[in-house]
Amino acid sequence: MPQVVTVPVSQLGNRSYLAHDGRHALAIDPPRDVEALEAAAEEAGVRIVAVAETHVHNDFVSGARRLSDRHRARHLVAAAAPLRFLRSPVFDGDKVQVGDLQVEVIATPGHTAEHLAFLVTTDAGEAPALFTGGSLLFGTVGRTDLLGEELAEPLARAQHRSVRRLHDTLPGETRLLPTHGFGSFCASTTADTPEGSTLADQAATNPALTTEDEDTFVRGLLAGFGAYPRYYEHMAELNRHQLPPPPAPAPLDPAGVRSAVAGGARLVDLRDREAYARAHHEGSWGVEYGDQAATYLGWLAPWGQRLVLVADDTEPLERAVVDLQRIGVDDVAVGEVEPHPGPEPATGCPGYRRLRWEDLADARTDGEPFVLDVRGRDEFDDGHVPGAVNVPLHELVPDHEALPDGEVWVHCRSGYRASIGASLLHAAGRPVVHVDDDVERSAAAGVSLTTTDG
After folding, report:
1. Distance between CA atoms of residues 87 and 79, nearest Å
2. Pseudo-torsion of CA 373, 376, 381, 382, nearest 10°?
3. Angle, vertex CA 143, rays to CA 141 and CA 148, nearest 5
4. Nearest-CA neighbor of 137 among 206, 72, 78, 85?
5. 343-to-182, 433, 452 alpha-carbon distances in Å
6. Contact (Cβ atoms closer than 8 angstroms) between residue 390 and residue 377
7. Helices (H), 306-401
8. pLDDT digit string (tens) for 99-113?
9. What is the pTM of this model?
10. d(CA 387, CA 392)
């Protein structure tokens, strides 16, 4: 098999790849920050001579054009892709030589109309490597509703045919290397992500291959789609243009932070949720830095709103800026949180309580306290606190009609989403309690869950 280096982009729930012959390399689906792929090429001692994109991405800003420019490499994109810059257009059945690697282009419409897969082989007769982007994934396929509900069904039918074409025409030992499926909302469902999975493995487990009837497959696929981040609707348009390199964030002193917020910027505190809950800047959102921080910020903040990030360490600030730039959020400034924000500074305010399931069990009386579950609806239906109200985090606004006056106890599965939800409500002046605990502990702590079906 061709030599393949996997470059995870966990913040996007994706993977990029570098396929090479020991001297020449093909990069597949790079993110906007291309340095990790370049480092992988340098470590392998190879030169990037071609960059392939499986489709016009809906979940992140592509770095393919930037990477190809930096290395004077061919930029392989479907001829049908509506891009507004020069590239090397390819068609179904085209074959491209990358050193000793043979790269065959296979049209796989479904996730998008112009979607391609790239089959990489060598003359040595080794098992091929198949880079499937958002088509055939581990245990699932790419969702087909991102380009509009009216296209979801015809693209789902195309997805089924594309996947079966791969299965029917390629050897079973072909190694599957998808871009999506590692947490990205571009996947239609979540599934296990086995290393070294082959087409033969997927034939036994993937619904797109085990369900022969197209109508049955399409009904099941369309019924399984959940919500996806709002910023997705802007990604394809950004990727149709050749974006400039991302700008460096503007550094702000405390006075600059206050001025930016007064001018309409959203202040975001990246510290851990325990520190935020103790005390924080008035009106700020608390989004503890982690792999999902940028996803939720891009989901919750209005598109185009300036973000001012504060933290007590430079590392989360630097990482969050890169993560946000990956989704096209460039209007970002950074500052340091005051050492002990509290009621004394003009920008500070006291925090709120962080409690556990035992505390909720002790506090419960007839209908009190009010419990807000910010998990997804499927999670809620599978088991929730009796009497709790479900408002998924991405739908939460302080004046939501489901929220009564008075104190709100907010929980989720692990405490992370609840911390963001509690901060949104607290920033608007609502009294909150953050249930920072794992939902699997609820029954043992005295809070039994019920299902929607009873």
Report:
1. 9
2. -100
3. 155
4. 206
5. 42, 19, 42
6. yes
7. 314-326, 357-363, 377-382
8. 999 999 999 999 999
9. 0.93
10. 16
Query: CB neighbours of 67 closer than 8 A, spacing ≥ 6?
Result: 27, 30, 34, 37, 38, 48, 51, 73
Asked if the model's pLDDT at residue 397 lies above 60, the reply is: yes
Report how far apart, in Å, the C-alpha atoms of 125 and of each of 93, 141, 165 are.
Answer: 20, 28, 22
Q: Find tokens 């906007």 and name the residue.
A: 32
Q: How far apart are CA 341 and CA 282, in angstroms?
A: 9
**Which residue is associated with the tokens 């579950």?**
373
**DSSP-derived pairing of the beta strands 129-133 and 116-121:** antiparallel
Cα torsion at 267, 271, 277, 280 (round to 10°)? -40
CA atoms within 13 A on the CB side of 283: 13
The CA–CA distances, whole Å, from 360 to 50, 410, 445 equal: 57, 11, 9
Hey, what are 102's tokens? 């043979």
The one-letter amino acid code at 112 reads: T
Name residue, tokens 């420019």.
69
pLDDT single digits (tens) 48-76: 999 999 999 999 999 999 999 999 999 99
Per-residue pLDDT band at 418 (split at 50, 70, 90): very high
Instruction: Extract the tokens encoding 144.
Output: 């087909």
How many Å apart are CA 301 and CA 66, to the nearest integer? Answer: 27
> Tens of pLDDT along 218-256?
999 999 899 999 999 999 999 999 888 888 999 999 999
Cβ atoms 133, 181 nearer than 8 A: no
